[in-house]
Specification:
This is Probable peptide chain release factor. It comes from Proteus mirabilis (strain HI4320). Belongs to the prokaryotic/mitochondrial release factor family. The protein is built from five helices and ten strands; from the N terminus they run βαββαβββαββααββ. It is α+β, with helices and mostly antiparallel strands. The protein folds into two domains: 114 residues, Alpha-Beta Plaits; 63 residues, Double Stranded RNA Binding Domain (2-Layer Sandwich), CATH 3.30.160. It has a seven-stranded mixed sheet. The protein has a three-stranded antiparallel sheet with strand order 6-7-8, with helices on one face. Strand 9 and strand 10 form a beta hairpin. It is elongated and about 55 Å long.
Length: 203
Amino acid sequence: MLLQFSSAQGPEECCIAVEKTLNYFLTVTEQRQVDVIILEQEPSRYGLKSVLVSLKGAEAKAIAQQWSGTVQWQCTSTLRPKHKRKNWFIGIAYFDPPQEIQDTEILFETMRANGPGGQHVNKTSSAVRATHIATGISVKIQSQRIQHANKKLAKQLIAWHLTHYLSQQQASFNNQRHLAHHRVIRGNATHCFYGREFLPITK
């Protein structure tokens, strides 16, 4: 299952809300034994503009459907204390898994992972760069220590980007991920939080 958290081009307060929502979501999914892997994230100055995650587990689909919609954060701005606005909205969109791509359609390269992770992540060539031969779409995955697992995630991410690419080329249907950035309904939120501690509001 794929979930996209988006600030919907809102101000930095919405980006902070995206990061706080993601952290809360990771706690919830861990309790329900659902594995969450961050495939892509776009940082902002104070938070995250958007995050794309993959869910795996018996309750993955149920959780994805439960969280799909609008998240409301009620809090005085930590960046602009005198700002009158106290409600910040972000969107969470659920997407069905893209159609699987065959290995013959992709060029795989292995390399040593870099960045956080210490010695474990750099000892072996576990990172994978995957390039879709026909379109040139390329991604790099290093979130897992096992090369096979990174290869599987890279294929999923390539398929995601390919769906987006084809929708733009064919112009026969609107791309769901793009629209999700603009379709935040301000009201009737599926989840509400308040305060700097980002505490949930029970409906």
